[in-house]
What we know:
There is one protein chain. This protein is α+β, with helices and mostly antiparallel strands. The protein has two domains: about 5-185, Jelly Rolls, CATH 2.60.120; about 190-295, Homeodomain-like (Arc Repressor Mutant, subunit A). It is built from ten helices and 13 strands. Helix 1 (about 145-155) runs antiparallel to helix 2. The protein is elongated. It starts with a strand and ends with a helix. The model has no long low-confidence stretch (mean pLDDT about 90).
Amino acid sequence: MLSSLVHLGPLALLRPAVNFANRMTAAPGQEWGPRTIPDSQLIYVISGQAALTLGNEQFQLQSQDCVFYGSDSPHRLVSSVSDPCTFASIHFSWHKESPEPIHPMPGIHHCLESELAQPATSYAFHMQGHGDIIFPHHFVIPNLDSLFLQIVREYRFEELGYASVLRAVLTQLIVVIVRHQLTGLNTSGPRSRIAPALEAIRKQPNARWTAEELAGLCGYHPTYFAALFREGTGHSPKHYLVLERIRKAKQLLLEAGTIDEVAEKMGYTSIHYFCRNFKSVTGMTPSEFKRQSIVL
Protein backbone atom coordinates (compact mmCIF):
# COMPACT_ATOMS: atom_id res chain seq x y z
CA MET A 1 0.00 0.00 0.00
CA LEU A 2 1.43 3.40 -1.02
CA SER A 3 1.42 6.39 1.32
CA SER A 4 -0.54 9.49 0.31
CA LEU A 5 1.13 12.85 -0.26
CA VAL A 6 -0.44 16.18 0.64
CA HIS A 7 0.91 19.22 -1.25
CA LEU A 8 0.72 22.30 0.97
CA GLY A 9 1.77 24.84 -1.66
CA PRO A 10 4.58 27.40 -1.24
CA LEU A 11 6.21 27.35 2.19
CA ALA A 12 6.34 31.15 2.21
CA LEU A 13 2.53 31.35 2.05
CA LEU A 14 1.77 28.89 4.86
CA ARG A 15 0.16 30.23 8.03
CA PRO A 16 0.76 27.49 10.62
CA ALA A 17 -1.04 27.63 13.94
CA VAL A 18 -0.37 25.87 17.26
CA ASN A 19 -3.38 24.02 18.65
CA PHE A 20 -1.84 22.51 21.79
CA ALA A 21 1.63 22.33 23.35
CA ASN A 22 2.94 20.48 26.36
CA ARG A 23 6.08 19.20 28.08
CA MET A 24 5.72 16.07 30.17
CA THR A 25 7.53 13.09 31.63
CA ALA A 26 5.75 9.87 30.73
CA ALA A 27 5.10 7.07 33.19
CA PRO A 28 7.03 3.83 32.57
CA GLY A 29 5.36 2.03 29.68
CA GLN A 30 2.76 4.77 29.14
CA GLU A 31 1.06 4.50 25.75
CA TRP A 32 -0.72 6.81 23.35
CA GLY A 33 -2.66 4.92 20.71
CA PRO A 34 -3.08 3.26 18.43
CA ARG A 35 -4.91 6.39 17.36
CA THR A 36 -5.32 9.14 14.77
CA ILE A 37 -5.37 12.90 15.34
CA PRO A 38 -7.24 15.70 13.53
CA ASP A 39 -4.21 17.91 12.97
CA SER A 40 -0.42 17.42 12.83
CA GLN A 41 2.01 16.74 15.68
CA LEU A 42 5.70 17.26 16.37
CA ILE A 43 7.35 15.43 19.29
CA TYR A 44 10.86 16.18 20.55
CA VAL A 45 12.46 13.75 23.00
CA ILE A 46 14.33 15.65 25.71
CA SER A 47 15.52 12.61 27.67
CA GLY A 48 14.76 8.95 28.12
CA GLN A 49 13.51 6.58 25.43
CA ALA A 50 10.32 5.74 23.60
CA ALA A 51 9.12 3.70 20.64
CA LEU A 52 6.92 5.09 17.88
CA THR A 53 4.97 2.98 15.43
CA LEU A 54 3.93 5.21 12.54
CA GLY A 55 2.06 3.42 9.83
CA ASN A 56 4.30 0.59 8.72
CA GLU A 57 7.46 2.11 10.24
CA GLN A 58 8.94 1.82 13.73
CA PHE A 59 11.31 4.32 15.37
CA GLN A 60 13.32 3.85 18.56
CA LEU A 61 13.50 7.34 20.03
CA GLN A 62 16.00 8.88 22.42
CA SER A 63 17.26 12.34 23.36
CA GLN A 64 17.23 14.85 20.44
CA ASP A 65 15.05 12.64 18.24
CA CYS A 66 12.09 14.41 16.69
CA VAL A 67 9.10 12.85 14.94
CA PHE A 68 6.26 14.26 12.88
CA TYR A 69 2.95 12.90 11.64
CA GLY A 70 -0.21 14.41 10.28
CA SER A 71 -3.92 13.86 10.52
CA ASP A 72 -5.38 10.41 9.91
CA SER A 73 -1.96 8.69 10.11
CA PRO A 74 -2.36 5.76 12.53
CA HIS A 75 0.36 5.74 15.18
CA ARG A 76 1.28 4.56 18.68
CA LEU A 77 3.83 6.06 21.06
CA VAL A 78 5.11 3.96 23.99
CA SER A 79 7.41 5.27 26.71
CA SER A 80 10.25 2.99 27.80
CA VAL A 81 9.63 0.99 30.97
CA SER A 82 13.25 1.18 32.13
CA ASP A 83 14.00 4.73 30.90
CA PRO A 84 10.75 6.75 30.66
CA CYS A 85 10.91 9.66 28.24
CA THR A 86 10.50 13.36 28.84
CA PHE A 87 9.29 15.09 25.71
CA ALA A 88 7.78 18.26 24.27
CA SER A 89 4.74 17.92 22.04
CA ILE A 90 3.12 20.38 19.63
CA HIS A 91 -0.21 19.86 17.87
CA PHE A 92 -0.60 22.27 14.96
CA SER A 93 -2.40 23.06 11.72
CA TRP A 94 -0.32 23.70 8.62
CA HIS A 95 -2.48 26.54 7.37
CA LYS A 96 -5.14 28.39 9.33
CA GLU A 97 -6.26 31.99 9.03
CA SER A 98 -6.61 32.54 12.77
CA PRO A 99 -3.61 31.77 15.01
CA GLU A 100 -5.91 31.01 17.95
CA PRO A 101 -5.41 27.44 19.24
CA ILE A 102 -8.15 24.87 18.67
CA HIS A 103 -7.72 21.93 21.06
CA PRO A 104 -7.36 18.66 19.12
CA MET A 105 -8.91 16.40 21.78
CA PRO A 106 -12.41 16.13 20.19
CA GLY A 107 -10.84 14.87 16.96
CA ILE A 108 -8.51 12.25 18.47
CA HIS A 109 -9.80 8.74 17.79
CA HIS A 110 -8.60 5.30 18.74
CA CYS A 111 -8.03 2.96 15.84
CA LEU A 112 -7.60 -0.77 15.35
CA GLU A 113 -4.24 -2.45 15.79
CA SER A 114 -4.44 -3.60 12.18
CA GLU A 115 -4.66 0.01 10.98
CA LEU A 116 -1.06 0.61 12.08
CA ALA A 117 -0.02 -1.14 8.87
CA GLN A 118 -1.44 1.81 6.90
CA PRO A 119 1.40 4.01 5.57
CA ALA A 120 1.63 7.48 7.11
CA THR A 121 0.60 10.48 5.04
CA SER A 122 3.51 12.64 3.86
CA TYR A 123 3.44 16.42 3.47
CA ALA A 124 5.31 18.49 0.90
CA PHE A 125 5.63 22.19 0.13
CA HIS A 126 7.39 24.17 -2.54
CA MET A 127 10.46 26.27 -1.89
CA GLN A 128 11.79 28.75 -4.42
CA GLY A 129 15.11 27.48 -5.70
CA HIS A 130 14.69 24.04 -4.18
CA GLY A 131 11.54 22.57 -5.67
CA ASP A 132 9.19 20.41 -3.61
CA ILE A 133 10.42 19.46 -0.13
CA ILE A 134 8.90 16.56 1.79
CA PHE A 135 8.71 17.24 5.52
CA PRO A 136 10.51 14.37 7.31
CA HIS A 137 8.76 11.95 9.65
CA HIS A 138 11.89 11.40 11.74
CA PHE A 139 15.05 13.49 12.20
CA VAL A 140 17.70 14.40 14.74
CA ILE A 141 18.55 18.06 15.40
CA PRO A 142 20.56 18.94 18.54
CA ASN A 143 19.27 21.71 20.84
CA LEU A 144 15.88 21.99 19.16
CA ASP A 145 14.23 21.82 22.58
CA SER A 146 14.61 25.59 23.08
CA LEU A 147 12.07 26.36 20.35
CA PHE A 148 9.72 23.61 21.53
CA LEU A 149 9.83 24.86 25.11
CA GLN A 150 9.30 28.47 24.03
CA ILE A 151 6.09 27.35 22.31
CA VAL A 152 5.05 25.39 25.41
CA ARG A 153 5.59 28.44 27.65
CA GLU A 154 3.60 30.75 25.37
CA TYR A 155 0.76 28.25 25.17
CA ARG A 156 0.61 27.70 28.94
CA PHE A 157 0.69 31.33 30.09
CA GLU A 158 -1.44 32.92 27.33
CA GLU A 159 0.13 36.34 27.70
CA LEU A 160 -0.89 39.29 25.53
CA GLY A 161 -0.47 38.39 21.85
CA TYR A 162 0.48 34.80 22.63
CA ALA A 163 -1.33 33.32 19.61
CA SER A 164 0.70 35.51 17.24
CA VAL A 165 3.91 34.57 19.06
CA LEU A 166 2.99 30.90 18.78
CA ARG A 167 2.58 31.25 15.02
CA ALA A 168 5.89 33.09 14.68
CA VAL A 169 7.91 30.57 16.72
CA LEU A 170 6.23 27.59 15.03
CA THR A 171 7.12 29.09 11.65
CA GLN A 172 10.72 29.47 12.82
CA LEU A 173 10.74 25.86 14.03
CA ILE A 174 9.45 24.59 10.67
CA VAL A 175 12.07 26.60 8.78
CA VAL A 176 14.86 25.28 11.02
CA ILE A 177 13.73 21.72 10.26
CA VAL A 178 13.54 22.45 6.53
CA ARG A 179 17.01 24.02 6.52
CA HIS A 180 18.34 20.93 8.24
CA GLN A 181 16.58 18.80 5.65
CA LEU A 182 18.26 20.75 2.85
CA THR A 183 21.78 20.26 4.21
CA GLY A 184 21.56 16.73 2.90
CA LEU A 185 21.53 15.06 6.32
CA ASN A 186 17.99 13.83 5.80
CA THR A 187 17.42 14.20 2.08
CA SER A 188 16.17 11.42 -0.09
CA GLY A 189 15.18 11.15 -3.72
CA PRO A 190 16.47 13.55 -6.41
CA ARG A 191 18.26 16.02 -4.12
CA SER A 192 20.33 13.33 -2.43
CA ARG A 193 21.40 12.03 -5.85
CA ILE A 194 22.66 15.45 -6.95
CA ALA A 195 24.14 16.36 -3.54
CA PRO A 196 27.77 16.49 -4.83
CA ALA A 197 26.76 19.05 -7.46
CA LEU A 198 24.78 21.16 -4.98
CA GLU A 199 27.70 21.13 -2.55
CA ALA A 200 30.16 22.13 -5.29
CA ILE A 201 27.98 25.07 -6.31
CA ARG A 202 27.51 26.13 -2.69
CA LYS A 203 31.24 26.07 -1.98
CA GLN A 204 32.38 27.60 -5.27
CA PRO A 205 29.59 29.69 -6.80
CA ASN A 206 32.26 31.76 -8.58
CA ALA A 207 33.48 28.75 -10.58
CA ARG A 208 32.34 28.42 -14.18
CA TRP A 209 30.58 25.13 -13.68
CA THR A 210 29.25 23.39 -16.76
CA ALA A 211 26.42 20.89 -16.73
CA GLU A 212 28.88 18.24 -17.88
CA GLU A 213 31.25 18.93 -14.96
CA LEU A 214 28.43 18.84 -12.41
CA ALA A 215 27.03 15.67 -13.94
CA GLY A 216 30.47 14.10 -13.69
CA LEU A 217 30.62 14.87 -9.96
CA CYS A 218 27.43 12.84 -9.51
CA GLY A 219 28.38 10.10 -11.96
CA TYR A 220 25.53 10.70 -14.39
CA HIS A 221 25.13 11.37 -18.10
CA PRO A 222 24.54 15.14 -18.61
CA THR A 223 21.04 14.65 -20.08
CA TYR A 224 19.88 12.45 -17.21
CA PHE A 225 21.59 14.73 -14.69
CA ALA A 226 19.81 17.81 -16.07
CA ALA A 227 16.41 16.12 -15.69
CA LEU A 228 17.27 14.91 -12.19
CA PHE A 229 18.55 18.35 -11.21
CA ARG A 230 15.36 20.06 -12.38
CA GLU A 231 13.26 17.49 -10.52
CA GLY A 232 15.21 18.09 -7.32
CA THR A 233 15.53 21.89 -7.42
CA GLY A 234 12.95 23.16 -9.89
CA HIS A 235 15.71 24.78 -11.94
CA SER A 236 18.27 23.97 -14.59
CA PRO A 237 21.89 23.67 -13.35
CA LYS A 238 22.76 26.95 -15.09
CA HIS A 239 19.92 28.90 -13.49
CA TYR A 240 20.56 27.37 -10.07
CA LEU A 241 24.18 28.53 -10.30
CA VAL A 242 22.96 32.05 -11.08
CA LEU A 243 20.64 31.96 -8.06
CA GLU A 244 23.46 30.83 -5.78
CA ARG A 245 25.82 33.50 -7.15
CA ILE A 246 23.26 36.24 -6.58
CA ARG A 247 22.45 34.94 -3.07
CA LYS A 248 26.13 35.20 -2.17
CA ALA A 249 26.48 38.53 -3.99
CA LYS A 250 23.74 40.03 -1.83
CA GLN A 251 25.67 39.05 1.30
CA LEU A 252 28.88 40.60 -0.06
CA LEU A 253 27.11 43.83 -1.06
CA LEU A 254 25.73 44.16 2.46
CA GLU A 255 29.29 43.82 3.76
CA ALA A 256 30.17 47.07 1.96
CA GLY A 257 31.81 45.47 -1.07
CA THR A 258 31.74 47.50 -4.27
CA ILE A 259 29.70 46.23 -7.19
CA ASP A 260 32.83 45.64 -9.30
CA GLU A 261 34.50 43.69 -6.47
CA VAL A 262 31.47 41.55 -5.84
CA ALA A 263 30.97 40.79 -9.53
CA GLU A 264 34.60 39.68 -9.81
CA LYS A 265 34.39 37.52 -6.69
CA MET A 266 31.31 35.79 -8.11
CA GLY A 267 33.13 34.88 -11.29
CA TYR A 268 31.63 37.51 -13.61
CA THR A 269 33.92 39.02 -16.24
CA SER A 270 31.21 41.45 -17.35
CA ILE A 271 29.72 43.91 -14.88
CA HIS A 272 26.79 44.37 -17.28
CA TYR A 273 26.02 40.65 -17.24
CA PHE A 274 26.28 40.57 -13.44
CA CYS A 275 23.84 43.49 -13.09
CA ARG A 276 21.44 41.87 -15.54
CA ASN A 277 21.49 38.58 -13.60
CA PHE A 278 21.13 40.42 -10.29
CA LYS A 279 18.05 42.33 -11.46
CA SER A 280 16.43 39.27 -13.01
CA VAL A 281 16.66 37.48 -9.65
CA THR A 282 15.98 40.30 -7.17
CA GLY A 283 13.96 42.78 -9.23
CA MET A 284 16.49 45.57 -8.58
CA THR A 285 19.97 46.53 -9.65
CA PRO A 286 22.97 46.01 -7.32
CA SER A 287 23.08 49.79 -6.76
CA GLU A 288 19.41 49.88 -5.79
CA PHE A 289 19.94 46.92 -3.47
CA LYS A 290 22.83 48.67 -1.69
CA ARG A 291 20.88 51.93 -1.35
CA GLN A 292 17.86 50.10 0.01
CA SER A 293 19.96 48.30 2.63
CA ILE A 294 21.37 51.65 3.81
CA VAL A 295 17.90 53.23 4.06
CA LEU A 296 16.51 50.27 5.96
